[in-house]
Structures are given as structure tokens and as C-alpha cells.
Design goal:
9 strands, 138 residues, globular, mainly beta, nine-stranded antiparallel beta sheet, 57% strand
Length: 138
């Protein structure tokens, strides 16, 4: 399982090499359609074309702003992206900005394409204008 989130993962780098195309410096931009527009960058990625999945390492992700929602910027150690559905999960010291004045940290976050929301039920710390909030997710 990939970082304990119930996602299939390749066991090690040797297995990744056998089943997936290894990429360095991956940049992927999604625009249009039902999901939010975003740009993803990863230092290393492993593309399994048959499964239409990408495993990511050292990830930066920007979900671009829309009229009713500010931009979201995220960084983390690893992630998983489904090419067909556009769903993703990020884990490993996830930190980021929700708009210009709100920062957060979490163990993991995921994107629900149907609802168009970023969520987590893991412990989260949110800092906003000098206040710090701790909770069980968002």
C-alpha cells in the first residue's frame, strides 16, 4: 500500500523499473473539464501506463484559483495520481497554502474530483493571521 492510504504501490524501485517508466523532473498540467485546473511537478515519477497511474516523489502541486476559490499550493514527499480520473493523494509532510493568508500541514491530503474539494481526515495544523488551529482533518 502506498503510504498507508489504501492505494496500490510498487514494492521497491526494482519493481517500479520493471512495470513503470521512470521519469525525472515531471511537469503535468491539467486544464478544462470538470476538475479544477492544476499543475503538478515531481522530482521523480514512475508511470505505469497499463494501470494509468503515476507514483510521485518530492511533489509540488498548484491548484489554480477560480472565481469562488483561491489557489492552493502544496508540497510533500510522495504522491499518487490517477491519469484517467484525475484523482490524487499526497503524503509525507504535506504542507501548503490555502489562499494568500492560510498555511497548513497534514500527514496526507487527497482530491475528490466529484466534489471538487481537497480533504484529509488525518491530524492537521492550520495557521491563519496569527492564530493556530489543530484538528482531525478538513
Amino acid at each position: 500500500m502506498l503510504f498507508g492510504l489504501g492505494l496500490p504501490a510498487l514494492a521497491d524501485s526494482a519493481q517500479k523499473g520493471a512495470r513503470a517508466l521512470a521519469l525525472a523532473g515531471l511537469t503535468f498540467t491539467a486544464t478544462g473539464g470538470e476538475a479544477a485546473d492544476f499543475t503538478l511537478w515531481a522530482a521523480r515519477a514512475y508511470l505505469d501506463a497499463r494501470a494509468e497511474q503515476v507514483w510521485l516523489e518530492q511533489v509540488n502541486l498548484t491548484i489554480h484559483s477560480e472565481p469562488d476559490r483561491p489557489a492552493v499550493e502544496l508540497r510533500c514527499s510522495e504522491g499518487y495520481f490517477e491519469l484517467k480520473s484525475g484523482a490524487f493523494r499526497l503524503a509525507g509532510n504535506v504542507r501548503g497554502h490555502l489562499g494568500p493568508n492560510r498555511r497548513f500541514q497534514a500527514e496526507w491530503v487527497a482530491y475528490d474530483k466529484k466534489r471538487g474539494v481537497l480533504y484529509s481526515d488525518a491530524p492537521v495544523v492550520v495557521e491563519e493571521e496569527g492564530s493556530v488551529y489543530r484538528g482531525g482533518g478538513f
